[in-house]
Specification:
Elements (H helix, E strand, L loop, with lengths): L12 E3 L2 H18 L5 E6 L3 H10 L4 E7 L15 E3 L1 H7 L7 E9 L3 H10 L8 E10 L8 E2 L1 E3 L3 E2 L11 E3 L7 E2 L2
Parallel strand pairs: 1-9, 1-10, 2-3, 2-5, 5-6, 6-8
Antiparallel strand pairs: 3-4, 7-11
Helix pairs in contact: 1-2
Length: about 190
């Protein structure tokens, strides 16, 4: 299997502030609703997609559902993609009680590094869809090395990113990402 490589320019380590996270979630919600009349379900990919998924779901007056995915072998800075994604949909499928997903299903993550996690989640969710359902994906950050792109993103990056729920590396200074201006649609 050929794995996309995350791009790291090693110029800086970006940091997303809590305020920028909130603003980015609002922009993603607005962009999705501009293109789709409604969202029936929001699914966050743990760990990084949990906070933005809850923010988006709250705005939509929905409950976020969480699935667990693991791609990195560690949380070390500048970790390269392996292409091997473990995924646990059990919390979602247990709640479906044998029913199919309906309408627009929005999958949310913090970053699309190589695209492998979004690809795996999309592939594993597809058999759970009803006849008129569709999957959309939204992330805060899109790494320039990703070969699978989300439907929506806020920032495009080519360096490591630290999110509000992560501890910044002790041996590197961080640079705050600029305030989000708009959500980008990737078609």
């Amino acid at each position: 299997m050929t794995t996309a490589q995350r791009d790291f320019d090693h110029h800086r380590i970006w940091r997303v502030t809590p305020e920028a996270l909130h603003d980015a979630a609002t922009l993603l919600t607005d962009a999705v609703l501009r293109d789709h009349s409604s969202v029936e379900r929001v699914i966050g990919i743990a760990n990084g997609g949990v906070s933005p998924a809850h923010l988006i779901a709250s705005t939509l007056r929905l409950n976020a559902r969480i699935v667990r995915a693991r791609h990195n072998t560690s949380d070390d800075t500048y970790q390269q993609a392996t292409g091997n994604v473990s995924l646990d949909l059990t919390p979602l499928t247990r709640g479906l009680n044998g029913q199919r997903l309906k309408g627009c299903v929005l999958v949310v993550d913090d970053i699309c590094g190589s695209g492998a996690t979004l690809r795996r989640v999309h592939d594993d969710l597809t058999p759970l869809l009803g006849p008129d359902a569709q999957i959309l994906t939204a992330v805060l950050c899109l790494n320039t090395g990703a070969t699978t792109r989300p439907d929506y993103s806020i920032w495009t990056v080519s360096d490591w990113v630290v999110f509000p729920w992560e501890k910044p590396p002790a041996d590197h200074a961080t640079t705050t990402l600029p305030p989000p201006k708009k959500a980008l649609r990737h078609v």
